[in-house]
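We modelled the chain as a single entity of 57 amino acids. Its sequence is:
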Amino acid sequence: MRRGADAVVAVVAGAMLLTGCGREAAPPGHAARLLKAASATKFRITCAKDRWESTKA
């Protein structure tokens, strides 16, 4: 049973390393984008009237 758990941990750790999920540093400019997004108080959605009506289902 212990070998199976070790194998699962190894696979998950390997997947995290290969996909970059374990990366500690944020991409360049990320802090500025977060600040800009947090300071937005309103936004406008522009779409065709029939598209907007189809979302009211």
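As a brief sanity check on the tokenised model: The mean pLDDT is 80. Residues 2-19 form the longest helix (18 residues).
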